[in-house]
Structure formats: structure tokens, C-alpha cells
Design goal:
With 230 residues, the protein is α/β, with parallel strands linked by helices. The protein contains six helices and 15 strands. The strands form three sheets. The protein has a seven-stranded mixed beta sheet with strand order 2-1-3-11-5-12-9, sandwiched between helices. Strand 7 and strand 8 form a beta hairpin. The longest helix is centred in the C-terminal third of the chain and has 13 residues. The chain is globular.
Length: 230
């Protein structure tokens, strides 16, 4: 990170199908000025998000240190994330919305949310202080420093094609290496309320089986991911 005044030292990585939305919210967003941008065109070749993200991680020159900011095309920073990441712990993974416990309503989030066209706009969550530790964070934005990826060879599970891949990345990092996930208090606007397709339940079962011997119960914003040993 340079002087922390902009997003120099940040690499914004996205898988793109709606190029106009990506340009408006990510690439040409003035709050992202100074950053680098890596966009995978999934209209040309429709690959899984995890395959795309791993291809980025495999191709990066790790002699160059940077914050990797994995974002969806419908995710907008309303302030520069660079100054916050300049002060963040490089030994942690960061998100902007996460599950603090398995209790419903105990999520940490402070964001604007709307439909894709901006309708039904509302503020969700409540303000919080510091950088609270969570069990997992949401996949709309995942931030990790290149030095942490290099040290532990962190990768995404390509059996998770679209759902729960951020949660898996974070659970694996904690279970294998004790790496925590924290929430960064950056103003943002997510242009989606999400939806749960049948694929989600298949991948959720896969994740629960994968972490059946996990050291603790994990959760996402709408329910449990894995169960501790019996």
C-alpha cells in the first residue's frame, strides 16, 4: 500500500456478466481509483467463480504485495477501501458482512442493499466499532493480502461453483492455520438481495460433510454451515 490515500495496492478481482454494471460500480467507481482491476468475462466462457479466482491466485506474481479484493459486479464501495486496508491486519481475512455466531440476527453488517435496478433501497444492520471477528463473511466481498495467500497457499474449493465459496475459504483458513476472518467497516451498497436456488442446498450439504469434524459450529448470514464433532 502506498500512502493509504487511495486504492493503490488493491487489486479488484471480479467475474463479470453484466459489463455495464461492473464498469459503473467497480471499474469506474471513483472510490476505487488507484487500484488495479482484473475482470473475467463469463459471457465469453462461463466458468465457476472459484475456478476464476483460483486462476488469478495461480497467476499472481507474489513478489508484488497487494490486497486482493474479490468483489461481485453488483457491489459498490461508497468510500475508498484503500485507507482502511492500509491499517488492517495482513494476517486476517476480511469481509463486509459476517456471521458472529449461529444465533439468528447476530450478523455484523452495515450496508445499503437494493434490487439490481436500485429499487427497494434500505439500510441493513447497525453501526459497529473496530474490526470484529466473525465465523464467516459473505461472498459479495472478500479481502485477503497476497502475503497471507503466499504463506499458506490459500485457494478456493472448485467443487463450490457459486455458493458458499467464501465461507469455505474462511473456514479452511481457520481450521488449518488459525487464520481469523474479520469485518471491515467500509460503506458499501450491494445491488442484490440474493436468492437461494436448489444448487445452494447441494453445496451446503457438501460443506457440512467436509467440515463434520470442525472445531466449532460455523454459520453464514442465513444459517449453519458445519457442525462440530459429536
Amino acid at each position: 500500500m502506498a500512502d493509504g490515500s487511495d486504492c493503490s495496492g488493491c487489486v479488484f478481482v471480479a467475474v463479470v456478466r453484466d459489463h455495464d454494471m461492473y464498469a459503473r460500480l467497480v471499474k469506474d467507481n471513483p472510490n476505487n481509483a488507484g487500484g488495479e482491476f482484473v475482470a473475467f468475462d463469463n459471457l465469453v466462457e462461463n466458468l465457476s467463480v472459484t475456478a476464476r479466482y483460483n486462476s488469478f491466485l495461480e497467476s499472481w506474481d507474489y513478489s508484488r504485495e497487494a490486497w486482493f479484493v474479490f468483489v461481485h459486479e453488483d457491489y459498490e464501495f461508497l468510500e475508498p477501501v484503500g485507507p482502511l486496508l492500509a491499517k488492517a491486519d495482513r494476517k486476517s481475512i476480511y469481509g463486509t458482512c459476517g456471521a458472529r455466531s449461529t444465533h439468528p440476527g447476530d450478523d455484523i453488517v452495515w450496508a445499503l442493499n437494493s434490487n439490481r435496478d436500485g429499487t427497494n433501497l434500505g439500510v441493513y444492520g447497525r453501526p459497529f466499532r473496530g474490526q470484529p471477528t466473525v465465523l464467516t463473511s459473505d461472498c459479495n466481498c472478500l479481502m485477503v493480502h497476497s502475503s497471507l495467500v503466499r504463506e499458506y497457499s490459500l485457494r478456493f474449493d472448485e467443487k463450490l461453483t457459486f455458493d458458499l465459496y467464501a465461507e469455505d475459504f474462511e473456514i479452511a483458513a481457520f481450521e488449518r492455520f488459525g487464520i481469523p476472518t474479520k469485518i471491515l467497516g467500509v460503506a458499501n451498497h450491494h445491488y442484490s438481495f440474493g436468492s437461494i436456488a436448489p444448487r445452494f442446498f447441494v453445496q451446503r450439504r457438501y460443506l457440512m460433510d467436509k467440515y463434520r469434524d470442525a472445531s466449532r459450529v460455523y454459520a453464514r448470514s442465513c444459517g449453519e454451515e458445519g457442525e462440530p464433532p459429536a
